[in-house]
Structure formats: structure tokens, C-alpha cells
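Human: If only I could read C-alpha cells as easily as an amino acid sequence. Take your time, and here it is.
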Amino acid sequence: MIATMGFSFGSVAALPSIGGLATESAMVAFIQPSTALQLIAFAILLGGIYGLVALGLTMIFGVMDVINFAHGAMMVVGMYTVWWTATAFGLHPILSIPLAVLGLFALGVLVHLTTISSIMDAPQENQLIVTFGIMLILISAIEITFSTDPQSLGLGLGSVAIAGVFLPLGQLYALLIAISAVVVVWLFLQRTQLGRAIRGTADDRTAAQYVGINVPRIDYLTFGIGAALAGLAGAVIPLFQQINPYLGDSYLINAFVIVVLGGLGSFPGALLGGLIVGFVHVFGQYYLPGSGYQISIFLIFILVLLLKPEGLLGGGVSE
């Protein structure tokens, strides 16, 4: 069984045990094309979801210069929205995903108008404390409403084999949804008047005000879109794993790494960073003992900070 942060990939008979591989076993695995292809497939699946998690985070920072510590908690709200609507009303989980996205957009706008807007010009540590407080409130509300017990949809979607490569359908659906979301958001930013206003605000907030852009309106819409993307990232997770109120924190840690790796505010960078972390996570967990894969992720993170502090594709939301 290959599992990354609960991201279960199912059993693959062709793959030897992950934990504590001997050097000889590792060398054999490296020269087996089927093993390499299987790990690459898993890495792309995980990397795509990581990229989706990072998209909302990098959009909020790129436009508003706000680091949103509540992003993981908003993911959790998206997870439980899908789980609750599916179990309480019998709604298919795929149909529940748009409800999670809309609900998180509304929640994001509400959070911005009631808290973030008043501290936009405050020191960044104030913003961190406020978003951390929002995170605690959201997680506590989930705990009180649904308890801390793990929950599962129990879909059992199975898998599909393509050219001998095992692809779990839950993760595959999540990846396709992530790709679709990236395309839609990119087209929105590039082809619509509102999207161009968001890009203009990200480039220069003062100049945007001078040309007539309503920057406060752009701010709450951007925070709402970022929250909606967090909700979407959370909404796809019940398709392939159990959920609990603390799961968002696990994804959020690596999402911050991804945002910095790709470049603060860069959409392409978030996707590239997600794939890098996905590959390091899967291959590292397979070939390294214990939590060696997480150490590898942070070593790459530190190396990029030292050699290219602006990130691999730093450039902002406008690119």
C-alpha cells in the first residue's frame, strides 16, 4: 500500500514494500520500467492536487499580499461540505463539489469583509495572527458539529490500468477536476474584464486605484476566489481518503512550501511546485526510510530560497 498523507494509492503487486528498502531492492526497482512508471503516475496525481491546494493560497498573496493561515481550515470546510451533503441527502459527491465551491466563496467574502479588510494595512504579523484565529474558529466549529472522528464516503471507486500503470479512479477524478479548475481560473484572469482588474491590482495596487479599479472590491472577490479554490481542493479529497478536522494542516504545510518554490503569486509556479513536491513525496517515501521524503522536500525548499529567493517562476498572478 502506497500512502502519502492519507493519499492512498492502493496496493500494487509489482511494487515491493516501501519502508526500509535494502540497497539491492532499491536498485532492482530503479531498473524496472513498470515500477518507475507507476511511481511517476502516483507523483503526478499527488502533485496535481498539491498544486490545486496552493493555487488559492498564491492567488490571495499575489493580489493582496496576505498569507492566509486559514487556508487549510477552509479546505476542511470543503471536505465536510461534500461528505455531509452526500451522506445526509444522498447527493452524489461529484455533484456536491460545486456546492462546496460556492459555499467557500461566500465564506471567503464574509471573512474578508468582517476581519481581513480592516487589517490590510497592518503589519504582516497581525494578518498572520488574525488568519490563525480564523483557522482555530473554523476547525473548532467542525469539531463541535461533526466530532473529531474520521469520516469516509466509502465510495470504493476502484482503479483503471493503462499500459500496465495502476490509476486509482478517485485520485484520477481529483486530478482532472484540478486541471479543469486551473484552466478555468487562468481563462478568467486572462479573458475577462474582472480578471484583468485582478491582475492589474496584483501588479500595482496604487496604479489600479488611479485608473478607476475598485481595489477594495477586488480584494474581497480575490479572497473569495482563493477560499473557493481551497474549498475545491478540499472537496475532491473525500473521493479517495478518510477526512478529519485536522487534515487540512497536513496539506497546508506543503502548500506553503509549494508557493515559495514556484514563486509567491505565480499560478504556473504553484503547479510546477506542486509537481516537484509530488515527485519528491512519492519517490522519497518509496526509497527513503521514515520521514526522509519530508526532509527532502524542505531541503529543496531551503536550496531554492538560497539560490533563487523569488522562486522558480516568480512573476505574480498576472503571468
Q: What stands out?
A: The longest strand covers residues 159-162. The chain has one domain: 3-10+35-148+158-307. The chain is about 70% helix and 5% strand. Residues 1-31 have pLDDT under 50 and may be disordered.
